[in-house]
Amino acid sequence: MRMKKRQIAGFILAMMSLILIMVFPEIEGLSEEGKRCLAVFVAVFFLYAFEAMNAAIVSLAIVPLLVFFKVTPIKEALAGFSSTSTYLIVGAFLLTGAMVKSRAGDRITYYILLLVGTKSRNISFGIMCVNILLAFMIPSSTARTAMMLPICLKIIEQYQGEGKDKTRFGANLMMTLCCTNSTISSGILTSTITNPMAVEYIQTITGQTITYRTWLVWGGPPALVCTLIAWLMIQVMFSPEKPCMENGKFYVQQKLQELGRVSIEEVKVMVVLGAAILLWFLGDMINLDSTTVCLMCGCLLCIPKLGVLSWKDCTKNISLSVMFVVSGGISLGTAMSTTGTATWLAESIFRIFGLERLSAQMLLLAMIVIIQFMHVFFSGTATMANVFFPVVAGIAGVAGISPVVMVVVAAFMIGGYPVLMFFNTTPNILCYDTGHLTTGDFIKFGLVLSVAACVVYGICVEWYWSMTGML
């Protein structure tokens, strides 16, 4: 397979940085193990940023690199692969598979469209509402987009009628699907990978557990506000040509009729998902963590006769790629914390950019803006989280701010607002590949939404998070 120039550059930079840091005689303030950990971190950063290799392979390679360069022993290097985040993702894949197989998600979508009506903007609003609702039920933004994409394409086709030219309505619906999916994800602990990764990292370095309800209180309101802002912006920037889809109500009713009566499989899935959501909300009261709930409910759906999934269904839905990216990143982040590399890196950043002059609030605001616009360089929110969580935790320690606050806010921005480029996330790529969106559409819309998100989260820093006890 022929390598692209970007991949070659990534490999060269990774190898050069690894060798240069390793042969450097001594780095002031950094232990020998820390120096070796820094070399691995910088090399992995270049491999991630330039997509020199598949992100899952890079993440898997973190384990032998940490051991080979004597940063940590094998047991500690593998710690990320036994993390709660990894198994939360396994449970999430099971729940998602059951939702897709039963077609309960399709029924929910068409019911909502029937409720909101079939005017062009109402359809877009309905897709946003489905994204919000499914974010509580399906713990994967990629799975939600993949499930909704065929429905949206059929609606666009119906809207276009005989004409097959690209329409603003098509761009509207695709942007609504992928971007409001991302924005709402930042506020719900189980809705996207980076959120449980943040919780796991916080647990590792501080021993503190962030519950589902706490995350919702801190992140839910700003996520909902930004989701509504994103939808309004889409209506202005991608205003539909026609005010209404012809025979829209009949079309939605026909689709519901094709689904037939509610099946016993759908009932089973909705009951189990309802139980999962309830237990997530009550978890801190009954001493049940999100991972336990997710795995328990996922396994229930695999019990013969009682559930809806076979083992074959499970293997089709569980992604080793996602699990490796998350697990390898946690292992690297833990190594950076235990060797002091994250703290040294943070102190260096403080000194170089003069950040010690900033107040805690201004530092948070600066981090929000920097992380948001760093999305330009990354494909995948999990890989970006792997790079930034150790650094922001180190900055928190140097600045005297709670690392919980810094990592949680970083997770909000990383997981919720990868909207600047079409390659930032798999949902973006799926919608871009339909041909209804261009690279320019993402840049134009992403820049405006990024500024709006920074303002909203800036208000949270100044006011809302103090009220909730987060700051």
Describe this entry's structure for a reader.
With 471 residues, the chain is an all-alpha fold. Helices cover 75% and strands 0% of the residues. It has 22 helices and no strands. The chain has helices spanning 5-23, 32-49, 55-68, 74-77, 84-102, 104-116, 120-137, 141-160, 168-185, 194-206, 212-237, 248-259, 264-286, 290-300, 311-317, 320-338, 341-353, 360-373, 381-399, 403-416, 426-432, 439-468. Helix 1 (5-23) runs antiparallel to helix 2 (32-49) and helix 17 crosses helix 19. It is globular and about 75 Å long. The mean pLDDT is 87.
- Percent of residues in β-strands: under 5%
Q: Specify the structural class.
A: mainly alpha
Radius of gyration: 23 Å
Shape: globular
The number of strands is: 0
N to C succession of SSEs = HHHHHHHHHHHHHHHHHHHHHH
pLDDT averaged over residues: 87
Characterize the largest beta sheet: strand count, sense, and whether it forms a barrel: none
End-to-end separation: 50 Å
Q: Helix coverage percent of residues? A: over 70%
Low-pLDDT segments, ≥5 res? none
| Number of H/I helices | 22
Quick tags:
22 helices; 471 residues; single chain; globular; mainly alpha
What is this structure, in a nutshell?
The chain is mainly α.
Spell out the blueprint of helices and strands.
Blueprint: H1 5-23, H2 32-49, H3 55-68, H4 74-77, H5 84-102, H6 104-116, H7 120-137, H8 141-160, H9 168-185, H10 194-206, H11 212-237, H12 248-259, H13 264-286, H14 290-300, H15 311-317, H16 320-338, H17 341-353, H18 360-373, H19 381-399, H20 403-416, H21 426-432, H22 439-468
Helix pairs in contact: 1-2, 2-3, 3-16, 5-10, 5-13, 5-14, 5-15, 5-16, 6-7, 6-12, 7-9, 7-11, 8-9, 8-21, 9-11, 9-21, 10-16, 10-19, 10-20, 11-22, 13-14, 16-19, 17-19, 18-20, 18-22, 19-20
